[in-house]
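Please go through the sequence line and token line underneath and see whether the fold suits the sequence. See right below:
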Amino acid sequence: MERVLRAACSALVALALVLVPAGPPVVAASAVHIVIDGQTVEIPARDQAAFISAGRTYVPLRVVSEHLGAVVEWLPTTRQVRITTRGQAVAAAPSRGASASTVEVVIDGRPLSIPPAYGAAFITRAGRVVVPLRAVGEALGCEVSWDAATCTVCIASRPEGPARGEVERPTQGAGDPPDQVAPAPEPALPAPASQESASGSDLLQQLAAYRTNLRLLDGQVVNSSGLAGQSLSAFSEAQVQQFRSALQQLSAYPLVLELGSGDRVVVADFSIMGEPMASAAQLRAWMERETPRLQAKMRSMGREMLPIPDLAELYLRIGAEYGVRGDVAFAQAVKETGYFQFTGSVQPFQNNYCGLWAVGSPCTGNEPLNGADGTRVRFQSGVHGAIFASPEAGVEAHIQHLYAYATRAPLPAGKTLVDPRFTLVSRGSAPTWQALNARWAVPGITYGQSILKDYWAQALVAD
């Protein structure tokens, strides 16, 4: 299914400007340029350009299809656009009444489900079909970035998977496309139904509402949004049972996180890149509140509580240098280290706050640095994970690893590589904290949600 979604991404990015009967007018909006896999797409003046309308970015895709090799057909009777991706046989479009008034996109025989909050596919006055950019970037997993200075959407075909050796792991960051270009009310998100009602198509629909990564039994990673409208008959009984288990775990986490500060965060959209919301004082106060509980827990384990290192300022400062939310990165470090008690395989002296290279077996000491600065990171035989020369080096390596997932941009000017796994990451594959699910952590069904709700939100409780 992952293959289907990856192919569909290329195909959907290839959908626009299909010749169809004229329809609703396009609201006047800013022109948007398109770059695909590094190449600027030239759109003839007579055709429909990409545009921003009513706070949504819409992408015309027939011109793009010429770059990606998909076959695009318009079925006028049922108002369907049938996309056949490269190397696939033409599949019959799902049955649809001739009286249908909306445009349906069908990719290799499967209808594309676009959440109402994203907008909808429609036909412009120029007689071309356009689709919301967000459907490309989220529902189908394309790597999409936004250059606000030039109003340019950069779309990259998703790699086949993480680089060998990497266990896969910006509300909008500065590099994200403007799905909302002006303040707007939060979309009404569907509330997950109770577990008892999760049967048949309801199960897949409820999973789709979370828009989260799932690693299937065959090892493929899909975004649950792509499950909407599918039939359970397409999956094995074992896979269906895994879906049920995933839904049960996900149901413990809200789609919208209510913070003690009064802010509300749409979990699926909350980016790794962006400004922090918690101050260093709040992060320290959080650790102080946890200290009595940790002392009791460590005593029950027959050991003394380790002093909690004062890393709040480091995470906020270094995070700001990379444009990464340092407060959430700090919360991730708290989760990974067990509140800096290091009850796992990584040891305190390593200054390794996110488990870099801790892959379940001890290092040999001969692991490659992959371009990282050897004066700041090393390996040692028998030790699990990388060893960093100082707390600052460990924090920067953590921030760099998040940066690798969040963006395809090079390191900021003047920065040297400290993260020895930076080059092993599928760059830009996880722009949000929730997108770390099934990538940073495996299976990681609620990994990103837990970072936000179980840890970071605790620093933002009301005084």
Remarks:
- The chain has three domains: 2-156, 195-257, 271-431.
